[in-house]
Amino acid sequence: MNEAQRSLTVLVAALGGEGGGVLADWLVDAATREGLPAQSTSIPGVAQRTGATTYYLEIHPRRRGAGPEPVLSLTPSPGNVDLMVASELLEAGRALQDGYVTPERTTLIASTHRIYATAEKMPATDARFDGSGVLAAARELAARSVLFDMERIARDEGTVINAVLFGALAGSGVLPLSRAAGEAAIRAAGRGAEASLRGFAAGYALAASPQPPAAAAAPAPAPVDPRVAAAFPTATHSILSLGAARLDDYQGPRYTALYLERLRAVLAVDRGPAFELTSEVGRQLALWMAYEDIIRVAELKTRPERFARIRREVRAAAHEPVVVIDYLKPGLEEFAALLPRGLGQRLVGWAERRGRLDAYNVGLHLHTSAATGFLLMRALTWLRPWRAHGWRHADEQRLIGQWLAAILAAAPADSTRALALARTAEAVRGYGETRRRGVAGFHARLAALTAAAEPAPADIRPAAPHAAQ
Amino acid sequence: MERSFRQEVGKLRLGEGAVFHGEGILAVTKALLQSGVAYVGGYQGAPVSHLLDVLNDAREVLDELGVHVETNASEAGAAAMLGASINYPLRGAVAFKSTVGTNVAADALSNLASAGVRGGVLVVLGEDYGEGSSIIQERSHAFAMKSQMWLLDPRPQLAKIVELVGRGFELSEASNTPVLLELRIRACHLHGSFTTRANRAPPISTKRPLTGPDFDFGRICLPPATYVQERHKVEVRWPAAVQFIRAHRLNERFDGDLAEIGIICQGGLYNATLRALELLGLADSCGGTRVPVYCLNVTYPLVPEEVVDFCRDRRAVLIVEEGQPAFLEEAILALLRRHDVHGVRVLGKGGGPGSAVLPLAGEYTGAVMLHGLARFLELAAPAGVDPARIGATLRALTAVKQRAAALLGAPVPTRPPGFCIGCPERPVFAAMKLAERERGRCHVSADIGCHTFATLPPFNLGNTVLGYGLGLASNSAVQPLSGRRSVTVMGDGGFWHNGLNTGVANAVFNRDDGVLVILKNGYSSATGTQELPSSPRHSPHKSAAMSIEGALRGVGVHWIRNVDAYRVARMRRTLDEALSTAEPGLKVIVADGECQLERQRRLRPETARQLAAGQRRVRVRYGVDEDTCTGDRACIRLSACPSLTIKDNPDPLRREPVTTVTDGCVGCGLCGENAHAAILCPSFYRVEIVHNPRWYDRALERLRTGFRRLLS
Fold first, then answer.
1. Chain A neighbours among B 588-617 (CB < 8 Å)?
2. Does the structure show a pLDDT above 80 at B353?
3. Which residue of A169, B97, B188, B520 has the fewest C-beta atoms within 10 A of its own C-beta?
4. Which CATH number is A136's domain given?
5. For chain B, how far is it from start to end, CA to CA, in angstroms?
6. Has residue A44 been placed in a domain?
7. ipTM surpasses cut 0.90
8. Would you call A226 an interface residue with chain B, using a CB distance cutoff of 8 Å?
9. Rounded CA separation B309/B672 (Å)
10. In chain A, how many domains are there?
11. Which residues 92-121 on chain A approach chain B with CB closer than 8 angstroms?
């Protein structure tokens, strides 16, 4: 056994379709140009463009022909990774978790943007992985870490993230590869070389002299509504002002007055020093009172800001026309919402008994950006004054009344329970079937919380489990 | 096809003494041509798909040499093709994924091995085992043992792999036996280099065909010839093989100063063994080792003299053998006993208490090897190695995992592969989910292909997977015994591979009453979008589109519906109809939608060309209104499209993240279809962006904007 320099190792964690294979090819090519023995392996088992995958490379620092041929490994070993590259924050977390980032050896280069896994985005409640742990672990466990949003840079430069990663990798100075060799490898690969070179340059610059990330500017606080300022403690001002503004926009100042009146009753029983209950009820109540009926949806969909936002989102150039077609499928409930209370009630009751609530929905592809579609949508918004006379309005106010009564009853004795009751409104959201299930869940939770407070007789049953279906 | 190999084709032409840089499986392809192969076949499957893909792109080179190339209909077809080498001195090679492909090929391989071969035969097996694998975890080793075929497991270095391809043909001819070349996933995808030799035109080829047929009853698999063949295998071919392996030193020995211990490893694990030794301070980066290593580039048959010679004077030997059962370890133990070698302790997967050093099952990754070797050194305790230092080194390398776990706070969510953006299979499963919501769950027999991902969240559709094209056959007892109709899902790849015969014909013959959904995306997509008999477009050397519907009708299926895969509501109605119709017999729904990967591959350059040329083009994508989205994510649970994701709620009053569509959207339309079919919410919209607009586009846009301003 002779003393010999060890191989440099690079582990790339990426998602399928991000060009990790191309990155590995560039690296091997650049190393070959430098006369260094290099080898890469990968495990692209299936052709799909999703899922986590890795590429592993080894480069021997002694030039080819200058000694015996190195034995390069095909798999990474813990504690033996010089350069850990991750194309996304969660994948950096996975590399850390697997022990591939060590303080003695590893330079970690990772993009800080998030692409959520199915498990994170599927549940009805927020199940996103907390990325701050990854950043903390990176700072603590990597010999050096280069962390920035490479996806944004790739987008700005009109290229793919692998070019930015390659630049950052070359710029980090861990590998004995010159900038020229990296650029030559990109040029040799052909297709899209100019865009890739721009991404490479941006990544190189950031890794060679990392800039401290710019602190995100805190959003300017919304102006305090005088009606709120007059009657509520400071701690509640920002949320309640937002709520008041929302309801002004939704149905006008009289409706807002009802909102504030309801909240004054809550404030009167709020014993918390920070007025958490008032704030939480204020937040939920504003959302609930501004329920999304067909009038509201039509209003939101015909705002000029919406068209501007869509243009931004789809990156349409100023001269490029953009057509917006909305997918709407209103049904019996949406129609009944606009009928007078009694009539609407009877119609919905009839449909419910026959299980035909979703039987009469009409699928529309409404061309909202064009004259006729827009006119139809606008016409719906003109029904706003009528809203308060409709069945839906009465029904929502009835539910809100139940909810508030339960909170008001609980608050004097048990503020924790009152807060829990306030949060039951979270379940009431969505449209159609989703909303109906939400309302059922809300009733069940409300009943359970109310029952829990009452002294339980021996024969009491668990609160309304059937309602949770 | 997923990749074009035009560049690689040039590499196949390299002459004497040039340097080849490239992928392992392409190196094998080049080695086949250097070995004077006369015909090549196989069936696609990771990790060996590229072997056939590149040959299909290299027709010109092959025509010059007179080599016949065939994309076989299945692995069984590929193995049967090797029958050409039974009677004729033709070198032939096929490639497929193992063990699944070897399972399918087993019948032909048994017959081939029994008859024996005149021309050298090489079966390239992509050992799909460990990380990145997409199949059941088994070893190919058993196939070699049961049929007495020789198994090469070369050290993963391109020059060594290429050398063994050539030696493999020679070994096959010297022992009249088919030879298997096992390459693990990473070895197939390994990028490295080797010095080439000139291609050899086969003596018998499409240019210089056979002079006439050969008949020899001794090569027919029928008694009494089969009895003779069996004896010939063990009495003549096996000894000849051992003799050849020994004479040509196919296995390698690397000596070291710690002579009281040693390691016997599969060739494929040599590099991993060396790296673990290096990290523990007992080897260098260029192959120098203090622990003697006997590297088995041929793992079957073993060469008893070499094994005995390596083990005789040692106190302890470690067997590094991936996968289970531990065939090598047990064979070596028996062999040492028979040769009266008693002083050596054999460590590896199992045995007596305290002697398990490496795990019985699972891939031997860097971490596994490191722990295993450290444990071996601790148990064997050779003079000159401080066990305390080994332990300390190991801890230093691996301690970071606990710290990372603490800092991360929670385990990182897994991210398995799933359907691509715009995949035509996703809407079919959305429709099935909706149908299920109304009708209740039914048993779904799944199959092999991209669609197997439907078993993952959010669909969780598919109760069993029994093999490629075997979905419908696997349903044949479930259907009559479940008292209601059940559903089978099969891809077009599976249909042509096995499903038409084993599934459809069988179901019609047995008066099955179930429902079969065939996902017709036009390609063998999961393996790299290779052509199938029913592909919409074909390369010139393939027959024009063969029809799935025609084949179904031909075997007597009457109830056939062809439904656009993206029309969720219609698909749901068709499923309802199939599950409830009074009509007896197999009901087949063909879900028609081209593989989006392949579609984009075709469209993207075309679009870029049109845009550059200033032509008018309308781009379609979908979006979600953030102010009407209430964040219940019912849409994601019906789709899980990578481009349908979530972001922070821009509404300061709301906490739940809202749904959003990323720039990756290809405008397949599923979002809108789902919003309608499931009555989700009014947040989805379709956007059409007009690139290179004409004057009338701009005029209309101005009119519309003006009108909207007027009414707002």
1. 597
2. no
3. B520
4. 3.40.920.10
5. 51
6. yes
7. yes
8. no
9. 71
10. 2
11. 93-94, 96-99, 101-104, 115-121
Domain that holds residue A299: 292-389
Residues A327, A201: one domain?
Answer: no
Angle at alpha carbon of residue B164, lines to B159 and B167, rounded to 5°: 130
- What CATH topology corresponds to B6-246? Rossmann fold (3.40.50)
What type of residue sits at position B644?
L
Report the C-alpha gap between B676 and B670 in whole angstroms: 10
Q: What is the pTM of this model?
A: 0.94
Domain boundary at A333, A361, A389, which?
Answer: A389
| Residue pLDDT, tens place only, B286-323 | 999 999 999 999 999 999 999 999 999 999 999 999 99
Domain ranges of chain B: 6-246, 252-408, 426-598, 616-711
Q: From edge to edge, which strands make up the β-sheet containing B293-296?
A: B252-254, B293-296, B261-266, B316-320, B345-347
B-chain residue closest to A429, CA distance: B630
What tokens does A1 get?
């056994």
Name residue B418's amino acid.
G
Q: What is the DSSP string of A324-381?
A: EEEEE---HHHHHHTSBHHHHHHHHHHHHHTT-TTTT---EEE-TTSHHHHHHHHHHH
| β-bridge pairing B658-661 and B587-592 | unpaired
On whether the CB atoms of residues B310 and B264 are closer than 8 A, the answer is yes
A residues 157..216 contacting B (CB < 8 A): none
Whole-angstrom distance, CA of residue B160 vs CA of residue B183: 12
Q: What pLDDT, in 10s, does the model give residues A256-269?
A: 999 999 999 999 99
Cis check for the bond before B325: say yes or no (omega within 30 of 0).
yes
Say yes or no: A139 contacts chain B, CB-CB below 8 A: no
- Asked if A98 lies within 8 A of B279 by C-beta distance, the reply is no
Residue with tokens 């070499």: B306
Fold of B616-711: Alpha-Beta Plaits (3.30.70)
pLDDT per residue as tens digits for the range B497-513? 999 999 999 999 999 99
Would you identify the CATH topology of the domain B252-408? Rossmann fold (3.40.50)
**Chain A contact for B413, CB < 8 A?**
yes
